[in-house]
Amino acid sequence: MAKLRITQTKSAIKRPERQKRTLRALGITKLNQTVELDDTPQVLGMIKKVEHMLTVEKA
Fold first, then answer.
1. Residue among 4, 13, 7 nearest 38 (CA)
2. Superfamily assignment of 3-58 in CATH?
3. Which of 15, 16, 22 is CA-nearest to residue 6?
4. What are the φ/ψ torsions at residue 27 (nearest 5 degrees)?
């Protein structure tokens, strides 16, 4: 399965609690942290909700 490299580039301060929980569900807890996740429909949906705070690239 393809992998995605996801990096948080903008702060979650003053963002709705739902977006903060989405970042936590993706495994991101700090600014500039990078995680590698499988390219699944569930992960893509979460990325879509907070894409304004992330950088996504294929791993």
1. 4
2. Ribosomal protein L30/L7 (3.30.1390.20)
3. 22
4. 95, 15
State pTM to two decimals.
Answer: 0.92
Rounded to whole angstroms, what are the CA distances from 7 to 1, 27?
Answer: 20, 10
Task: Look at residue 24 in the predicted model and tell me its pLDDT.
Answer: 98
Average pLDDT per run of 10 along the chain, which is 59 residues long?
96 97 97 97 98 96
**Residues recorded for the chain:** 59
| 17: its two tokens | 């609690």
User: 41-49 and 17-25 are packed helices; what angle lies between their axes, rounded to 10 degrees?
Assistant: 140
Q: Please state the domain extents for the chain.
A: 3-58
- Residue owning tokens 């950088």: 55
